[in-house]
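Appendix B, record 7
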Amino acid sequence: MICNKDTAKKTAKLLLKIKAVKLQPNDPFTWASGWKSPIYCDNRITLSHPDVRKFIQENFTSQIKSDFPDVEVIAGVATGAIAIGVLVADALGLPFVYVRPEPKSHGRKNQIEGALNPGQKVVVIEDLISTGMSSMNAILALREAGAEIQGMLAIFSYGFEKAEQLFTSEKVSLKTLSNYEVLIEEAISEGYIENQSLELLKKWREKPDQYGN
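Structure tokens (predicted):
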């Protein structure tokens, strides 16, 4: 679920402008999973643009104050959401932790870095939601450590049904600043893609694992 339509449109416009999102319907990217994709999203690029990262920080902060007023700790999912999570925690004056994909193999073997006490209320920050598996892995690690998960906020979601079902089944509230549908609308409106590419982009969203095969 997007935070609101105006924010979603503005976020999409910014991501396209700074080339954090690239659309190539006829020359698809290859993801690490092996999937062929007409879209590639790298939200780390937002950190290099002060106006964009401030926009994201302010909107995340506002949403947390509105939806999760009892939050005690902000958590970022490594590595993409660490920096923006720190910015949000700083704006709210709250402690920050981050969650690795898996525990370290040496030292204290932490998966969660930072001070987190059992029972603390946590909002998780993510940069991107695709299948939702890595995001949920972080949430489950926090729960195992005793955290009470208030919800997750992400910059962008592809809106895959698999991810939506996963968050619903785990009873995790997920809101994003923007999503695939809004981004495609803005991309066509701003001339980043042609109307004739729309059908290809819709087909990919329906069956991403079969695109380009």
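Remarks on this record: The chain has one domain: 5-210. Strands lie at 21-23, 29-30, 36-37, 39-41, 73-77, 96-99, 112-113, 121-129, 148-157, 174-179.
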